């Protein structure tokens, strides 16, 4: 029997040891250029990983880590999975990279050439592209190098071509008023209607969106709103999108952040307006906007929040950012002081040259004359004195006694209770109408009516349900308004009670009671309260 030479055994063992020295990183990417329907299943993340694992097994390579990027452009080299791969390469954790084909790693031919020809060799990294039959450990002839360069150029051209087609497609959709956004915002879901996607309210989290706006409307800060949502274990938008569970699991740590609250409060989608174009980016030009025009469609879909509440919330945020930027110290009148003549915000300034500060408010509008500048100004101490005297007089108002407050409180709650009964009545009618649809179908299936009669009955019942839903939505809006009134009234009464016990002008007192203060010439002042106590109950 012939013997295998020790030389051959040694060579084979060296080969195995060499393969075992490789710490392999398998990289897979799914493009964001196509929809799930259009994608070739063989290009899926799972298929790419399976192909890489089979290749590694057949070639005696052991995979150390798998890196994935889902719905990411090949022109974008700031992908999370890709950056993690490079980080591990630099740290020495990975010294061999496997991809299905060159386009998975990237579609920029200049960057790809730099990686394959310069970066990977410098770092001592073996690079394998399975479908391109490329392995940098093996010597590459001129034809193979030329082929790789051509493929990189083709991939680059493909990215340009897709970007141009997307740009045209988006612009056409924008101009036709179609909803082109990829993901439905929190509080909404997509429903297909013929060839178009429609935004419909997601009833599961509708009340969460309302809670966020009503809390902000009542003066609660974004951070406190986020803390309260986390206390209630409500899933934040990213988790809800994945799980469709309104509440977090016990072991789930992700939560709401003030930035998330801020994005929701600024989004006009919640008043029924669709604004598109400004956030659509070019796949080829590394994130540059595909469109220079912002396309707006008013009343595109059913709103969750009234325009009045949305405007009030965002006007308050705008004032908080813009006004009184050169003020010093705690400014309790921030966002409240205006000129009665120019209607501009008044600026706060310390005019004292000693350690004891003396603040004044004046109109810094450049259009004002020097004479006007002197007339429209008031010291903070004088302002405190006037506001304090007005509030003391307000406490004497007969409409603010305990008996009147209880009467108004009960009146508002009774209105809400009556409206809730109407909601329940509409719910019963809607449920009955839905049963009629089922009965109508059963009657048709059993031959009781012909197709024309069945379709006619079905359409009539659908119209009836839509009418009932519209009436129900109108009542829900009224309930929301009354609920805000009750909450505002309770805050109002609480602040006045605190002032009666301790008549000091505080930040909270001003923000909760006063809408704005207008300063005219010679210290004339007009205070606009958030509640007109004499007319409010019937409003």
UniProtKB/TrEMBL annotation:
Residues 23-177 form the Resolvase/invertase-type recombinase catalytic domain. The keyword Coiled coil applies. It comes from the Bacteria. Keywords: Coiled coil. Residues 185-326 form the Recombinase domain. PROSITE patterns: RECOMBINASE_DNA_BIND (PS51737), RECOMBINASES_3 (PS51736). The keyword Cell inner membrane does not apply. Transmembrane segments: none annotated. GO terms for molecular function: DNA binding; DNA strand exchange activity. Residues 409-485 form a coiled coil. This is Site-specific recombinase. It comes from Streptococcus suis. The lineage of its organism: Bacteria, Bacillati, Bacillota, Bacilli, Lactobacillales.
